[in-house]
Amino acid sequence: MSDQFDLSVVVPFLNEEQSIRPMYEAVIAAVQPLGRRFEIIFVDDGSSDATLSIARQVAAGDRRLRIISFRRNYGQTPAMAAGIDHARGRVIVTMDGDLQNDPRDIGALLEKIELGYDLVVGWRHNRQDKLISRKIPSVIANRLIGKVTGVAIRDNGCSLKAYRASVIQKLPLYAEMHRFIPAMASIAGPRIAQIKVRHHARSYGQSKYGLSRVYKVLLDLLTIKTLTGFFSRPTLWFSLLGLPFALLGLLLAFSSVFRYSASGFFPIPLAGTALLFIALSVFLFFNGVLGELVYHTGDTRSEDFARMTIAERSGSPRPDPAKESADE
Amino acid sequence: MKSGEQVLDLSGIVVVGHRQDDLGSLAADYRDALRATQQTFELIFVLDGHADEALAILEPLRSDHEQTIRIIRLSRSFGEATALMCGTDQARGKKIVTLPAYYQVDPAGIPSLIRQSTGHDVLIVRREPRRGGQFETLRRRIFHRILGAITGYRFNDLGCNVRVLESKVLTELKLYGDQHRFLPVLARNAGFGVVEVAARQSERDAFRARYRAREYLHRILDIFTIFFLVRFTKKPLRFFGMIGSLTGIAGGLILAVLVFERLFMQQPLADRPALLLSSLLVVLGLQLFSLGLLGELIIFTHARSIREYKIAEIIGSEDSKNREDAA
To answer: Is B308 exposed, middle or buried (0-12, 13-18, 19+ CB in 10 A)?
Structure first.
């Protein structure tokens, strides 16, 4: 089924009545010359304006275009997830529906995938957005994500990405995780490339998906760290969290015993604190054990992740693509 | 009977729990009301525990009107929402009309409700004019206002169990426990169209809830649960992390003050009870945080079977399906 097309272009829309037709024309103009069998999937994320009806008109004239419409607004990640779930191409390209990404870059992304990469990330090197509210937070966030996850991507927030369908369709994609796809995918150890892509200033409408609050990104990052870094070893991860507290608790316990033997006066608050910290570390340890149980009964095992990339790799193995991609 | 076969227009489902009025006359009233719609219908009674008396009353009715009245008896009490789901599994109607086992809405108004439900996934009822003391009215209003503020969906009478639903709504929502009360909220959250209309309260809706402390506690927990279900099911760390970081930061601040005083103001640290308080807060915060992480792990490991979004329609899929069939 997924071999029906070479390429699926997935574009989520939210209230983009002016952009949707130009977007369709731009995608067709960019993809048709590539000479591949392709389909386009527009996902309407519960728009309240005429987006859906315009999309309907466009789709009526072109069988290569499919439209998925949501019952209500769910957000960008679910919209992309829906498109990806329903895509039937071997390669899936996602992009924003606001014309800020340029469909002419699809060809370059596709080329990279055909070289053997599993995931190609666009990098908006001359980003046309407001400096203070969008660009600077984005630079900081990307640095941080790279540091914490160990997957250094210059522009995680860029929607223009290309995926090998067999990889992305196995990744769980929910909440606001689209930002972390490269990091999530790193559990599977795929080969990731980055290329520069064009970026245009907004010509129609308002920016819909605003800057996420710092708090959310930080928590998501912590989640990702838990999921990727220690994915198959929750006990270890939670024990590491608890270790400093266990040490601190023991230290305090010794100190209170020492005080008692020195002065005959027992410092109850200090000893209580010691017990609390020790209890915390024990609690964390058993949380890890519980995590082990959850992981064991879940349906996402690391072996599955490993399997899904190996199958695709028999094609054209290349020397250390991670290095190569970092230079671009 | 094979479930899921939708051969009738309407299925009335009455969950018979611990609160019940005279079932004989109630069943007759409901039957007359459904008959007045001039659509094909069935009336399903789900006995959620407390079955013997109810069975004695309903059984004779069933033999009289075999075509329309069916009885499902559960082995024990499972709660109203679960009982409702059992009824839904057996229902053969395209639309489901949930009805309480006591008088809430004047049965004569039911046909008009069913008429008004056309084109909506869920129709809920607001009893109007509503009897009850001023304090009761105030209490109700506060409850619904809080719920509205938290979920973003404003309803006025969630306690009214007369509802008209497309059968797909219930099969998709998979309610359990006490969730039937929040069916409109959950349905709205799943993207269904919900409309609220007014209907006349039954003369016999005489139940006086004794709002004791326990009842209030239940309501508060309900609000808490629904808050979690609507806002955070996919992101438990946001929820636990919020509470955890607040307590953790509070504890950390106190601790910092204590350490500062110890270091620079020669205040002894070891025997101050505030030390115990602050470290307790820090520990509590971290525990909540780690519970959130555990929640994330649960979501992630099951995420492949989670479909967050609900699709209304796929345009352009028909002809592609045909192509697949031809191939």
So the answer is: middle
B300: part of which helix (H) or strand (E)? helix B273-302
Q: Is the Cβ–Cβ distance between B13 and B84 less than 8 Å?
A: yes
Q: A204: pLDDT confidence band, cut at 50, 70 and 90? A: low
Average pLDDT of the residues in A134-144: 77
Find the distance separating the first CA and the last CA of chain B, reported in whole Å. 36
Nearest one of B89, B92, B97, B84 to B36, comparing CA atoms: B97
Would you say B97 and B114 are in contact if contact means Cβ atoms under 8 Å apart?
Answer: yes
Question: Which tens digit of pLDDT belongs to each residue from A146-169?
Answer: 777 777 777 777 788 888 888 777
Please name the residue that has the structure tokens 């492949």: B304
pLDDT recorded at residue B17: 83
Encoding tokens for residue B154? 């404003």
State how far the Cα of A152 lies from the Cα of A164, in Å rounded to an integer: 20
Of A1, A173, A280, the CB nearest to B283: A280
Q: What is the pLDDT of residue B5?
A: 61
Domain extents for chain B?
A: 8-133+153-207, 236-304
Question: Which of A157, A155, A161 lies closest to A9, judged by CA?
Answer: A161
Cα separation, B182 vs B219, whole angstroms: 11
Residues A305 and A184: their CA atoms lie apart, in Å, by: 10
Asked whether the beta carbons of A291 and B297 are under 8 A apart, the reply is: yes
**Spelled out in words, what is the top-level CATH class assigned to the domain A5-229+305-327?**
alpha beta
Q: Is the peptide bond before B129 cis (omega within 30 degrees of 0)?
A: yes
Q: What would the mean pLDDT of B196-206 be, rounded to a whole number?
A: 82
The bridge status of strand B163-166 relative to strand B122-127 is antiparallel
Which of A114-123, B112-121, B221-230 has the weakest average pLDDT?
B221-230
Q: Is the pTM of this model over 0.95?
A: no
Burial code of A241-251, b = ≥16 C-beta within 10 A, e = fewer? bbeebbebbee
Q: Which chain B residue has its CA at the smallest distance from A225's CA?
A: B293
DSSP element (H, E) containing A77: helix A76-86
Answer whether A103's CB lies under 8 Å from A171's CB.
no
Q: What's the confidence (pLDDT) of residue A322?
A: 42
- C-alpha angle A238/A241/A246, rounded to 5°? 110
In this complex, do A65 and B319 lie within 8 Å of one another by their Cβ atoms?
no
CB A193 within 8 A of CB A116: no
- Window 281-310 of A, Cβ < 8 Å to B: 283-284, 287, 290-291, 294-295, 297-300
The pLDDT, as a whole number, for residue A1 is 46
Confidence of residue B327 (pLDDT cuts 50, 70, 90): very low
Of A182 and B109, the one with more pLDDT: B109
Distance CA A121, CA A16 (A): 24
Q: Which residues of B touch A298 (CB under 8 A)?
A: 297-298, 300-302
Domain B8-133+153-207 CATH (choose: 3.65.10.10, 3.90.550.10, 3.40.47.10, 2.60.40.10): 3.90.550.10
pLDDT at B40 over 50: yes
